[in-house]
Design brief:
Order of helices and strands: EEEEHEEHEHEHHHHHEHEH
Shape: globular
Strand content: 15-25%
Strand order of the largest sheet: 2-3-5-4-7-8-9-10
CATH superfamily: Alpha/Beta hydrolase fold, catalytic domain
Radius of gyration: 18 Å
Number of helices: 10
Distance between the termini: 43 Å
CATH topology: Rossmann fold
Structural class: alpha/beta
């Protein structure tokens, strides 16, 4: 497996991101190891923050300080192909199953237990699979602008428009994609920070491939495993909260489905957060952190 690694100097002087890098290795699936980057801040009960496409742990910079101030340990990995983590160079190196296995290996390497999961976008596709497959490690879940599709229901025009765009655009505009997914206006230096992991187009194969890995038909390679995960999630009775933005066309309505299908979501204070787009952490990061803190306090 050919692997690219973003030079460290690309991450110098990022705005509002003073956190020290941490690294560990996970099996690539082809015999070698991949270096995975993560934030590990504070101490106390673990809050695992999983990002999605095409962002990285920089997305959580507004949430980390209030969470650690509340006596929580915040762990936020960069998915393989993103952030400061290694980037396999071929599209075929990336599969849904490998993304799940890479984060499973990460959780096992740190021996994380009693986890509060906060997951958004692909962080939910990966994270909810792991909640189903490694249930004993998770105490509660906060799901935001995400779902776990099986390909049995249509994904909606907004998703397919995004998928077509991601494959057809000559240069994949990572920073602009994040900017367009926000309600608030992002400063230029923040847009640039989202582009930092990708010196050129060769580093973006993981970002390009992610939209193609979302199960959009019943015979998708990940469909069977996701259906099996739903069999477990349909019995998951630990606390489960949804906190969705009111201005995200891609995942609109998925919160209601999660609430209806997962027993642990019953009688929880689910939130629709006003003035928040797909990248809700950018628009309302501090408010989300308070939601997580209050949820842990009320369900511990």
């Amino acid at each position: 497996m050919e692997v690219l690694r973003t030079p460290d100097e690309r991450f110098d002087r990022l705005p509002g991101f003073p956190f020290a890098p941490n690294y560990l290795e996970v099996p690539s699936g082809e015999g070698e190891d991949l270096r995975l980057h993560y934030l590990d801040e504070g101490s106390g009960p673990v809050v695992l923050l999983l990002h999605g496409e095409p962002s990285w742990s920089f997305l959580y910079r507004k949430m980390v300080p209030p969470l650690t101030a509340a006596g929580l340990r915040v762990v936020a990995p960069d998915l393989i192909g993103f952030g400061r983590s290694d980037k396999p160079a071929r599209r075929t190196d990336y599969t849904f199953q490998r993304h799940v296995d890479w984060i499973r290996s990460f959780i096992e390497a740190l021996d994380l237990t009693d986890i509060t999961l906060f997951c958004q976008d692909w962080g939910g596709l990966v994270g909810l699979r792991l909640v189903a497959e490694e249930t004993g490690r998770f105490a509660r879940v906060v799901a935001s602008n995400t779902f776990l599709p099986t390909g049995d229901q249509p994904l909606g025009d907004a998703f397919f428009s995004w998928r077509s765009y991601s494959q057809e655009v000559p240069e994949f505009p990572v920073g602009d994609a994040v900017r367009r997914g926000c309600v608030s206006e992002l400063p230029a230096e923040v847009v640039t920070a989202y582009e930092a992991p990708f010196p050129d187009e060769t580093f973006k194969e993981g970002a390009r491939q992610f939209p193609m890995l979302v199960p959009a038909s019943p015979d998708d390679p990940a469909a069977a495993a996701n259906r099996a995960a739903w069999e477990v999630l349909a019995t998951f009775d630990r606390p489960f909260l949804t906190a969705f933005g009111d201005s995200d066309p891609i995942t609109r309505g998925a919160d209601m489905m999660l609430q209806a299908l997962i027993p642990g979501a019953a009688n929880q204070p689910h939130q629709t957060i006003e003035g928040a787009g797909h990248f809700i952490q950018e628009d309302k990061g501090e408010e989300l952190a308070r939601t997580v803190i209050d949820f842990i306090g009320s369900t511990s």
